[in-house]
Amino acid sequence: MSETVNKKKILIGITTAETVAHETMQSIYGLLIPEGVETSLSIVHAYNVADGRNNLVDIMFNEGYDYIFFVDNDVILPKNALVDLYNMNWYFTTGTYARKEQRTLTDKDPFTTLYNHDEHNKDVYCPTFMYLSSLPPNKLTQVDCCGFGCTLIRKDLFEKIEKPYFFFAHELAPKTGVRAEYCIGEDMYFCRKVIKSGFQIWAHGNVLCGHLGKYIYTLNRS
C-alpha cells in the first residue's frame, strides 16, 4: 500500500469592496503550483480592508490551511509568484508591484510597494518607498514593510503575534501623543507587529507584479 503524502494547503485570499479584476483572476488561475501543495480561493467582501484580512486569517485557521497568500483585487501575478515565494520556506515572503503613479510609466527606476525605515528620522516611524533598483533579481531583500497584493505568510506566524492582526491606525508622535500627519494602514500595522516579534520580511526580486489602474503599471528592469 502506497504511503499517503500530506499536502500543504494554501488559501489564496482576496478582500475587496468592489469586484475582482478579470486580469487578476486570470493570473491566479495561471499560477504555477508548488509541488506537494493544494490551493483554494476565498474572496471576502468588506469595506474595511483590515476586517477583510482578519476574516481571511480566520478562514485559514478554521479550515486547516498551512499558509495564506494575500492577493489584491487589482494585482496581476506572474506565473512564478507562488512557487518562488513558497520555495523561500520562510514565515513572511512577498513579491511587489508598482505604485499607481505617472512616474511608474516614465521613470527607469520607479517606486515599488516595499518600504524601509527612514534611518534619519528616529523620533517617529517614517517609512520610505524602495526603488526597483534596490530589489536585485534572483536575490532576496530584507524589507521593513510591504503592500499585501502578493504576500505569502505561514499560519504559525499568526500564532506568535497578538490580535488584531490587521488594524488601520494613525501614528502617534512620541511624548506628545499628537497624531502625526501620516497614517499607518492595516498592512504596515501588521508588518510592524511582525518585526517587533522578532521576524524578518523577505522580498523576492523575481516576483514583480502588474498593478491595474488607468494603465497597467508594471516594473520593468532596464
Topology:
Layout: E1 8-16, H1 22-29, E2 37-45, H2 49-62, E3 67-71, E4 75-76, H3 81-87, E5 92-97, H4 102-106, E6 111-117, E7 127-131, E8 140-143, E9 145-146, E10 150-154, H5 155-158, E11 169-172, E12 179-184, H6 186-196, E13 201-212, E14 216-217
Parallel strand pairs: 1-2, 1-3, 5-13
Antiparallel strand pairs: 3-10, 4-13, 5-10, 6-7, 6-9, 8-13, 11-12, 13-14
Count of individual helical segments: 6
Mean pLDDT: 89
Strand content: 35-45%
Distance from first to last alpha carbon: 54 Å
Q: What letter string, H or E per element, gives the SSE order?
A: EHEHEEHEHEEEEEHEEHEE
Q: Which structural class do the helices and strands define? A: alpha+beta
Q: Show unreliable segments.
A: none
Which word captures the global form?
globular
Main pleated sheet? 9 strands, mixed
Evaluate the radius of gyration. 17 Å
Helix content: 10-25%
DSSP strand count: 14
What this model shows, in words?
- Helix content is 22%, strand content 35%.
- By secondary structure, it is an alpha+beta fold.
- Strand 13 and strand 14 form a beta hairpin.
- The protein is globular.
- It starts with 7 loop residues before the first strand and ends in a 5-residue tail after the last strand.
- The mean pLDDT is 89.
